[in-house]
């Protein structure tokens, strides 16, 4: 499977991708734990069917210390015993924030309450921003058909300038 277009070799695509990457860097510097960020991004990417993003975030989560067991269970987090209540709240927000069209009310009040029980204002803003950003990134990956299994850590190195 070949991507439809390489966003990084197109001037407009490279500019937009770099800006999104820098927003992601700001989120990594937020008080939201890095491993949790990767789990949230992985779950949204699974829902959206973005192979490249699932590849990237499963590898990044492993590098952040996630175990294979937890990574394998992200897709079925509700039916597993390996996630904390805070992680469950974040994963619920990721799912509801990703599946907005499936729910007329968007994120439920119950999920929002659980998020607010576990995360302070800065962490909550980071979490909401993370869900929005990964959904945007997933759209790039799905629309351009970026295949999973092709991510390498140096793939994003050129975006740091």
TrEMBL record:
Q: Which domain of life is it from?
A: Bacteria
| InterPro entries to which the protein is assigned, alphabetical | AhpD-like, AhpD_core, CMD-like
Q: Where is the Carboxymuconolactone decarboxylase-like domain?
A: 24-96
Pfam families in alphabetical order: CMD (PF02627)
For molecular function, the Gene Ontology terms on record are: peroxiredoxin activity
Q: What is this protein called?
A: Carboxymuconolactone decarboxylase family protein
